[in-house]
């Protein structure tokens, strides 16, 4: 293990979801301190947690947070046809089941709970909030997919035809798009790393997957004004994968009173992994600062609780010698 990793611990395991699929999960934990809070990672389309999101997860763990991730069905090391999303709602439920099970552990019950969603993962985070509006203590949305820009919106007739074809050939790789790696990641060497990751998908989106993403985007767009949890949006000014003006719309429309939007001129879509290191450092400085300002419970128990427990232990020890 390199020296930079000495302060954190990595663990992984497979869990069984409600549909009998094996899903890969992982966590990065600070070694020598009680985590400040819990952070749950919602990764983007066609990528995964343990490699693509490693930089994000290790940086947050080094900052003192317990960071948990899950590869969605059909993504990364999880079971399912690669990059196939038969039901976005089921995908969100898988995340909800796993994340809430972690929150309900005795050692985590008093810890704050934050979501971090990148790109499509931003949509996952918003839907997790929608399912349990008061459960989460906040969210970081990195270039989130939360609305379709007007010029990209398909005609209702096209949507209708798409839905009908989906019932016949749902897994067909037909949707004509550029490989997202080429337009999301600015630095060529980082682009090559992404292309070399065998757990990422680089083909055309499958028909049903495209339809699910479209329907989810339209659903989230209708509910932007209902978003009520504290959040920070970070978005690259030159992002052509998700539209920065859509993030601006979420920021302006949301019911939340604690909300922030940071736009980084000249940066692309992959803010946390595809930019020059100085840019990535800047983005994470803003993210960690936002988290630290809200993660008020440094430990799962207060200092007074721990002192009282220590006094009880001394009393019991003294009594046993009487």
Brief write-up:
The protein is of the alpha/beta class and 322 residues long. Helix content is 39%, strand content 16%. It contains ten helices and eight strands.
Task: Write a structural description.
The chain is of the alpha/beta class and 322 residues long. 39% of the residues lie in helices and 16% in strands. The protein is built from ten helices and eight strands. It has helices spanning 54-62, 88-103, 120-131, 156-166, 180-184, 188-196, 207-222, 244-253, 277-294, 303-321, and strands at residues 8-16, 22-30, 38-42, 66-70, 113-118, 138-142, 231-236, 259-264. It has an eight-stranded mixed beta sheet with strand order 1-2-4-3-5-6-7-8, sandwiched between helices. The model is unreliable at 297-304 and 312-322 (pLDDT under 50). InterPro entries: AB_hydrolase_1, AB_hydrolase_fold, Hydrolase_4, MAG_DAG_Lipase. This is Serine aminopeptidase S33 domain-containing protein. Residues 300-322 are annotated as: Disordered. Residues 33-275 form the Serine aminopeptidase S33 domain.
């Amino acid at each position: 293990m390199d020296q930079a990793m000495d302060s954190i611990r990595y663990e992984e395991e497979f869990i069984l979801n409600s549909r009998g699929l094996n899903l890969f999960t992982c966590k990065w934990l600070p070694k020598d301190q009680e985590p400040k809070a819990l952070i749950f990672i919602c990764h983007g389309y066609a990528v995964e947690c343990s490699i693509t999101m490693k930089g994000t997860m290790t940086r947050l763990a080094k900052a003192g947070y317990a960071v948990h991730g899950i590869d969605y069905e059909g993504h990364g090391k999880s079971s399912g046809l690669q990059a196939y999303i038969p039901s976005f709602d089921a995908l969100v439920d898988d995340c909800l089941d796993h994340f809430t099970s972690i929150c309900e552990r005795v050692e985590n019950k008093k810890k704050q709970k934050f979501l971090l969603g990148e790109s499509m993962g931003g949509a996952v985070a918003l839907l997790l909030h929608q399912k349990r509006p008061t459960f989460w203590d906040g969210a970081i949305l990195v270039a989130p997919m939360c609305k379709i820009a007007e010029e990209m919106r398909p005609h209702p007739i096209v949507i209708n035809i798409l839905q009908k074809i989906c019932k016949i050939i749902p897994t067909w790789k037909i949707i004509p798009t550029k490989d997202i790696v080429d337009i999301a990641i600015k630095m060529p060497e980082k682009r090559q790393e992404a292309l070399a990751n065998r757990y990422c998908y680089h083909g055309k989106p499958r028909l049903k997957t495209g339809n699910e993403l479209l329907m989810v985007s339209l659903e989230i767009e209708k509910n932007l004004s209902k978003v009520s949890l504290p959040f920070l949006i970070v978005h690259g000014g030159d992002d052509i994968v998700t539209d920065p003006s859509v993030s601006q719309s979420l920021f302006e429309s949301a019911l939340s009173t604690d909300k922030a939007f940071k736009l980084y001129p000249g940066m692309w879509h992959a803010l946390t992994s595809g930019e020059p290191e100085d840019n990535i450092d800047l983005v994470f400085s803003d993210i960690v600062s936002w988290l630290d300002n809200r993660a008020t419970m440094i430990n799962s128990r207060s200092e007074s609780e721990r002192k009282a427990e220590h006094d009880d232990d001394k009393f019991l020890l003294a009594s046993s010698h009487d």
